[in-house]
Amino acid sequence: MGTHIALLIVTAVALLKHSVQGDGVNNVKNIDCCQFFPVIDDLLDLFEGPNTCSEDGALMVRLAYSDAMGIDPMLSGGGADGSLVTFSAVELQDPANDGLDNIIDPVRTLVENHEIEAGDMSHSQISDTNESLSVQFAAAIALANCPGAPRVKFMMGRPAATAPAPIDLVPEPPSSPKEALMNENLNNIDTTTFILERFSSIGFSPSEVVSLLAAHSIATASDIDSIVPGTPLDSTPFIFDTQLYIEVALRGFLFTSTGENQGEVGSAVQGVLRLESDHNLARDSRTNCFWQSLASNQTAMQAQFAAAWFKLSLSGHNATSLTDCSDVIPTPLGITTPPHFPPSLSNDNVDQACATAAFPTLPTEPGPPLVVQPRQQDD
């Protein structure tokens, strides 16, 4: 009996020790995850402080997305392995990755300061290259800095990238030179079909594609209209909310500067650039009803994005071989402003696309029509 009780006590203590460990300040389930806390401080400096949804933060999210898309069943590629950092000289040749060099250099500085590698900052996996910062970890911190974002999961243990990803795996907005050529060669295929089939090739449904586009709520388009860099994609670029799903569903006639650019269609809000790909997905019969369902439901949007983003972060990897370090990711601030139409706009301006349900009835923000300013570009 005494031996049995002693064994139970030892087991209970071991379980307790495993469930709450830390570095004296922060508590985590796995003590190996503590190595990430010092990196968070440097990331917050890069992102202009805690709870600041900065341009560099949004660019880091885009970097993580593009890196994870670097995999194909036929062409190979490592997926979410940091290859876009490690082999940036190759992968930045892809036009879809234009502008990401602005965030890769700060990432490399973090790698050098913390002696971490691109697989995912694990000190136990330091390589000779020392260029394997987990862009997935940095992106999770960037998202946590944006009010309204979900707290996304993060897994540690990705091996370092061994080769660059093949070019042309990251979908671009319709009417880009690359896709225009492909459409001509492929009998003018629907560009929405092109995007959905690319995602389908790595296991993503149309609804998951729409869910991932929630990241556009904090994004800007600096390379589509070069006259107005930093143009937001919705009217609330510092908040991770559902306004993108609302505003893209509205009929639009406004352009950011001189007129329609490749990949751009008319917007309903002055100063907001509407991507043609977003516009089409909001209206395509395969995606329009799900798009509409997220417009008025912040909680559903957060849950759907978090699930799709976590799935994307595992691209090329198996979760069972990784360590869950999600508890190092801070909890984002909530938001109190409900989904709404921008001033002067209402349900009358909705381009109703879903055939089975009406667009949700929402309040209109009071005041004159908005003129949204470009986001300040980080140096």
TrEMBL record:
Molecular functions per Gene Ontology: heme binding; metal ion binding; peroxidase activity
Record keyword Glycoprotein present: yes
Positions with a binding annotation for heme b: 216
Sorted UniProt keywords: Calcium, Disulfide bond, Glycoprotein, Heme, Hydrogen peroxide, Iron, Metal-binding, Oxidoreductase, Peroxidase, Secreted, Signal
Binding site for Ca(2+) 2: 217, 234, 236, 241
Cofactor, free-text remark: Binds 1 heme b (iron(II)-protoporphyrin IX) group per subunit. Binds 2 calcium ions per subunit.
Signal peptide: 1-22
Residues with site note (Transition state stabilizer): 62
Subcellular localization(s) per the UniProt record: Secreted
Protein name: Peroxidase
Binding site for Ca(2+) 1: 67, 79, 81, 83
Disulfide bonds: 33-325, 53-146, 289-354
Record GO cellular component, one term: extracellular region
Pfam families assigned to the protein according to its UniProt record, in alphabetical order: peroxidase (PF00141), Peroxidase_ext (PF11895)
UniProt enzyme class: oxidoreductase
EC number: 1.11.1.-
Region Disordered, annotated ranges: 360-379
Family per record: Belongs to the peroxidase family. Ligninase subfamily.
Named cofactor requirement(s): heme b; Ca(2+)
Residues of the Plant heme peroxidase family profile domain: 102-329
Record-level GO BP terms: cellular response to oxidative stress; hydrogen peroxide catabolic process; response to reactive oxygen species
Keyword hit for Secreted: yes
